[in-house]
Design brief:
Elements: E1 2-13, E2 16-28, E3 33-38, H1 44-51, E4 59-64, E5 67-68, H2 74-82, E6 84-88, H3 99-109, H4 114-127, H5 143-155, E7 161-165, H6 173-190, E8 193-198, H7 201-207, E9 210-215, E10 218-224, H8 225-230, H9 235-244, H10 251-259, E11 265-271, H11 279-286, E12 290-301, E13 304-314, H12 317-330, E14 332-335
Helix pairs in contact: 3-4, 3-5, 4-5, 5-6, 11-12
The structure holds adenosine-5'-triphosphate.
Adenosine-5'-triphosphate (ATP) binds at residues 11, 13, 18, 20, 38, 40-46, 199.
Protein name: D-methionine transport system ATP-binding protein
GO molecular function: ATP binding
Domain ABC transporter: 2-241
Length: 341
């Protein structure tokens, strides 16, 4: 478990103070895949550097497994660092060492016996699917393969925590998906807690169980990925979500609909089990109203269904109002007119 308790980090640049992280309180439970998302300059990297003890907080505490890591002595700090693996956007491999040499490096530093290093390196090469590349140099590998080496190296000393600093940002979409699958396997098979930072909502959507959104050094929203995606509380969070989920027809289509005399549009959100139920058809039939689905999607998030429908209703105005009122008791419904942006 990683706990940030009112953590702040301020850099002083001559007369200027930069509040990179401001009063962050956050708990990453053991076994979580926890994503921190934010635009450039939000403070994500600084927060990560605080966890892997490359920076000290200006105020507040960071506890890992109940230990206040900000007060550790140098020897204890070195030990704690071995418990935290890290992978990077630019892989940070040693070009002069082979793949096996890169993976062996942290074990050599820790004084692990040679035979044990050989055994562990082979095991890790198998795990990341690079058994045939042991003798290759990083320059002879693709970006995805380099990141696999990075992951193997980060796992070498059996850490409890893996920190990922924009680990897929330099990769194409297919390779990104491969690496994310591998990270999921790391989490599932070894129970390793993963803390990652990213500016890509796809990454959060595909592997994270929890998410925190950072802006100007602060955590402006955090929670389970399903809850945050289906009920964002902050405009910035909505912008990130919209980058992966288009929940409204484009303005051009909306205009066409209105110009063509289309009626009022409503957005319905269905979450979890209710997405399986025919709420719309049941309620409209009861009130003698008909509906037209103009736009919509049902997707799976964290193994739960999440539906988003844009519909229009026709029929007697009072019956339509009654149907909408009844739907509102069962799920979220909003008129689209206020949602156009
Ligand atoms: N060592 C430092 N000295 C001074 N200012 C710093 C230092 N490190 C970070 N900052 C500042 O702190 C703020 C947060 O930076 P940080 O790199 O943590 O953000 P980020 O969300 O990771 O952005 P990016 O994705 O661009 O790396 C920025 O204004 C940055 O300029």
């Amino acid at each position: 478990m990683i706990e940030f308790k009112q953590v702040s980090k301020t850099f002083t640049l001559g007369p200027r103070e930069v509040h990179a992280v401001k009063d962050v309180t956050l708990t990453v439970d053991q076994g979580d895949i926890f994503g921190i998302i934010g635009f450039s300059g939000a403070g994500k990297s600084t927060l990560l550097r605080l966890v892997n003890l490359l920076e000290r907080p200006t105020s507040g505490r960071i506890e890992i497994g109940g230990t206040d890591v900000t007060s550790l002595k140098p020897k204890e700090l070195r030990k704690q660092r071995q418990n935290i693996g890290m992978i990077f956007q630019n892989f940070n491999l040693f070009n002069s060492r082979t793949v096996a040499g890169n993976i062996a490096y942290p074990l050599k530093l820790a004084g692990t016996p040679k035979a044990e290093i050989g055994r562990r390196v082979n095991e890790l090469l198998q795990f990341v699917g690079l058994a045939d590349k042991a003798g290759n140099y990083p320059d002879q590998l693709s970006g995805g393969q380099k990141q696999r080496v990075g992951i193997a190296r980060a796992l070498a000393s059996n850490p409890d925590i893996l920190i990922c600093d924009e680990a897929t940002s330099a990769l194409d979409p297919d390779t990104t998906a491969d690496i994310l699958r591998l990270l999921k396997k790391v989490n599932r098979e070894f129970g390793i807690t993963i803390l990652l930072i990213t500016h890509e909502m796809e990454v959060i959507q595909s592997i994270c169980s929890k998410v925190a959104v950072m802006e100007n050094g602060e955590v402006i929203e955090s929670g389970g990925v399903f809850d945050v995606f289906t009920d964002p509380q902050h405009g910035t969070t909505e912008r990130f979500i919209r980058s992966v989920q288009q929940d409204l027809p484009s303005p051009g289509i909306l205009k066409e609909w209105r110009d063509g005399g289309g009626g009022r549009l409503y957005r319905l959100l269905f979450k979890g089990a209710i997405a399986n139920e025919p709420v719309l058809s049941r309620v409209t039939a009861k009130h003698g109203v008909t509906f037209n689905i103009v736009y919509g999607s049902v997707r799976e998030l964290q193994e739960r269904l999440f539906g988003n429908l844009i519909v229009s209703f026709s029929g007697d105005p009072d019956a339509v109002s009654a149907a909408i009122a009844e739907i509102a008791t069962l799920t979220d419904i909003e008129e689209v007119i206020e949602l156009e942006r």
